[in-house]
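A protein record pairs a chain with a discrete description of its three-dimensional fold. The following entry can be read in just this way.
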Amino acid sequence: MPNTTTPLKGRLNDAFGRLWKLHWVMAACFLIIYLIGMVMARLPREVFFRGSLYNVHKSFGVLVLGLLLLRIFTLLQVMAKNYLKRSRRFTPQWIKTFSLHLVIYLLMLVVPISGIFLSNTGGHEIPFFFVTLPNWFEENRSVGALAHNLHFWLSYTLLALVALHMIEQRQFLRRTWKQIFKENT
């Protein structure tokens, strides 16, 4: 059988492949964060594992921040290698897609920071799994409602934009999954 590489396989062997893998690892992390967040917010304070859920939620939030920094660095590598060499066509579709991605990246940065702000101003520490991180913000319970609303609404704005991103990318997703499953059979 001849050794032919598909376009997807070729793309996954370089910086684009790292970017693609980071994309899906972060997607899984965000899924975990949102599911835990929805459960923990509805639990009564008396439930014994509620604090553990908060700690896992916060740990994954910090993990996402680290992965995002790595992803931005990798994205800059991809852009330098592939996109700066050719002239960009500023079509309406390109502008729409670029704008959506820019806002998603911004919110992927701001949402975890707003969570850290919420915790720190409320007098709570930020665990990163088994390590407690130093506080980024001073305790100030008077901004608690603002911090909560900020984190809540930014989180759901990010979720809505991710849904829009998924709708926009459905053809690419379909083609990619078909290619992956075709290669594995």
Notes: The beta strands are 126-128, 131-133. The radius of gyration is 20 Å.
